[in-house]
Amino acid sequence: MSNLADAAKHQSEAAMNVAKDTLSEAQSAAKSAKENPIQAKTDFLHTPFMRTALPFINGGLAGMTATTVIQPVDMIKVRLQLAGEGVKTGPKPTPISVAKDVIASGKVMDLYTGLSAGLLRQAVYTTARLGFFDTFMKSLTVRAKEKGNNIGFAERAVAGLSAGGLAAMIGNPADLALIRMQSDGLKPKDKRANYKSVIDALSRISKSEGVTALWAGAYPTVVRAMALNFGQLAFFSEAKTRLSGTSLSPRTQTLTASAVAGFFASFFSLPFDFVKTRLQKQTKAPDGSLPYKGMIDCFGKVAKDEGLLRFYRGFGTYYVRIAPHAMVTLIVADYLGFITK
Q: What compartments host this protein (predicted)?
């Protein structure tokens, strides 16, 4: 019994010593942080976990900032793509006419319909795509240096395509909810879903159509994301590299590179964005049929019934939506990366 008591006493003393040491270290760390907060922040930012997480955190914050700014333009872009569905001729809506119709039928804030879904989409999609892109680029850069080479456009393209595809699969439910919320106002009042929020939309779509319905249009969404990221991230990285040797200031280099990236992102991705919007907007008819069977079927029917140029309808609006969004996202992400490096 005496031995057991001694052992228990020793364990208790050891535990007390560990607790005291831990408390002392915590107090020391707190004192150090108070005396030198900048150093404390730097130490925290350079922990292995934060170095891995920061590209994703910065990407999400940048995307959400851009979406808040660009949401009205995105609303108009979606309405333009859905106007005149299945008809080759007829009135051709313009961004101004669409904006007037939206405001006339409700109020100015209707242009922000689906903002909650847009923010959720960015929190998921942009967090993933910029985080994956940065991670892939770092890995490819290390590999290139080991071989004595510099990373080239091909590696940037692979990183952009891969990051876009992976992120699109993860973010498709939020993207679908955004399209449903933005297109709801086009339906007769008695047939509108009147979603209260993105959570309400996701919940009701899952209950009425099944969870798998949240991935409707996933194929064109993934292809569209790959095309967009190829144009945006690969060209942004390439442009910044080429501009680095010029007399332009770092801020001007970032702004110019993001403008170049916005154009190529718009050009490569608009046809896929158009089809994605059509597929995600469609709902089942009373007989259970859908207007389009899939991406290829949608491409074929639109080309036949509405003409090839319909895929680029609203290019100006799309560019005004994509380019500033790309510019704000990339500039904010670039700045966040700079202050947290």
A: Mitochondrion inner membrane
